[in-house]
Structure formats: C-alpha cells, structure tokens
Specification:
By secondary structure, the chain is α/β, with parallel strands linked by helices. Helices cover 34% and strands 17% of the residues. The protein has one domain (3-342): TIM Barrel. The strands form 4 sheets. Strands 2-3-4-5-6-7-8-9 form an 8-stranded parallel β-sheet, with helices on both faces. It has a 3-stranded antiparallel β-sheet with strand order 1-10-15, with helices on one face. The protein has a two-stranded antiparallel ribbon with strand order 11-14.
Amino acid sequence: MTRITITRPDDWHLHLRDGNHMRAILPDVGRRFARAIVMPNLKPPVTTTQNALAYRERILSALPDGMQFEPLMTLYLTDSTTGDEIRRAKASGVVRAVKYYPAGATTNSESGVSELSKCEDALNAMSECELPLLVHGEVTFPNVDIFDRERIFIDRVLIPVLKKYPKLRVVFEHITTREAVRFVMASPPRVAATITAHHLLLNRNAMFSGGIRPHHFCMPVLKREEDRQALIHAAISGNPKFFLGTDSAPHARDTKEASCGCAGVYTVHAGIELYAEIFGAYNALEKLEGFASVYGPAFYGLPRNTDKITLIKETWDVPKEVPYHKDTLVPFRAGGTVAWRLM
C-alpha cells in the first residue's frame, strides 16, 4: 500500500507552550490534527478553569488565518485542587481532563502532586463528573532506577487509585514498557493509554548512539527493545484502549544541548507521518485510522472528525533545525528523512 486516506486524526497528548513559541509550532499542529488535548504545564501552570479558558483563547487567537483546530483543555492537578474546581472545569464544556504530574517527574512539574492521597476531594469529583485523569505514570523515589519508574508506578500508585475510585476514568499517557501494555489490556474499559511515535520508533540505545543524543531524551525515557516491540504490537492491534498521543514537546536548541538538558522530543512536524511509517512497516496500515482517528474520540465521548487526510509513501527531508521564535529547535529525524508524506 502506497497511499492511504483516513479520517483526520486528533492528538491526545500535546505540548503547545505559549506566546510566540506557541505561534511558531501551531502551523505544524493544525495541518495534521483537528483537535488536541493540550498539556497544562506552563509557567505558571494551568491550575484553574479560568486559567484554562484564558489559555484556550490565546491558542485560538494565535491560529494562522483559515486554520481549523480545536484545543481541548486540561487542568494541572495539585495537592490543593478542590472538588469545586473540578466541577467548574466540567461545567465549562472546554476542559476535558485533569493532568497528574508527580512533583519533579518532568518539565515544569515542580507544582505537581506530592501524594495522591492529598487529592481525594478532586478525585472524587472527577469520578462523579466523569472527567478523566491523565497520568504521567512514573514514581520519583530517589531509590528507584529511572528505567523502572513506570513499572513501580503501576504497583504502588495506579492499582491502588483505581481500586479506591472505581468510577475514575484514567488515561495512562505515553506508556513505555511491556508491563504498562499488559496492565492496560487487563484493566476495565475506563482505563486507556496513549503511545508516542518516538517510543514506537526508538529504544534507549538511541540516546547513546555515538555519544549523548540530547534530542532523543524525553520523560519517560526510552526503554528496552522488548518494550518497544510490546508498544508496537499494542498500537497495531486494533485494541481501542490504545490511541495516538504524540507528547510532542518543543524546546529551544540551547536548552536541549546543555549541561542539564530539557526532556522532550519535537515530533508534531511529522505527527501522523511517523505513525504511518510504523504501521506500514508492520503491514498494519488498515489499523492506523482506528488508532489515530477513532479510539480517542470514543474514549473521551466526542464525535469523530468528518474531514479526511491522505498520506502517500514518499520520502521527504527533515530540516536540521526550524525557527522557534527568536530561537531554533531540532525536530525529530533532523537532517534525515520520513518515509510518508501528508498531501
């Protein structure tokens, strides 16, 4: 198969940033995706419905003329988030989920949750309102190896939370391990997961190929080859629990190539094309539409998009860097190629 037409996809995990940096990447986003779950880890974070509504207006006002794109907003969960705030978020009609960052787990997570036990009021309200909890599934205990953080999170955090809140809907975001795949498959329908393109395409060797590769550094970090294979089989399985979430996270070049570089991979410049590579390589292109365009809306209770996109199997060159307001950023596959092109 060298050509495929599918329903326009959505991105169920995306970092847009703010201001002029946001304006720099919105064309890449809107060209590919009709909607996206927008992460709230700004500085300061988006912790209230009022903040989320204001952020949404900034996104909409920054869209290029003629671009159709709907931002789906999220709240940043903190130890002090109240049930009343959750109910306001649900009533707004534009806040679609609440994001849980363990404090210190990733970029701009300093204000995250120290202990989920402190969030009972918010979690009860989320269960009541059916507002999903989006989890960055890692523990941050200093005695836990960084490659084991996700596995330990399942046992110590996620299983107890799901047991305590039997109506809570959860998206296990950017899963990276065999254990996460098995857990999601064995969980009830109220648990789903997103999978990134870079975790499907790379294993942890990519961070150290010929030296340190900072533009392959993300959180959660890339894992072993057997983990990557488990993710691929989940993505192409046709199981509606797994759907597309790029976790595309732009950082200026000098903040990645630094003594303490930021975590994040910029992939939205090829945000659907990279998935087509994987699905094509495994003779599963007929499953791409479900993964990219059907299962996410179904989980969130939203209608599918009505317009279509077409991808063709044609190689194109990825620039070595792209403008990022007054900076530059290095996109995934910089200086290399992508095997599928969006028409």
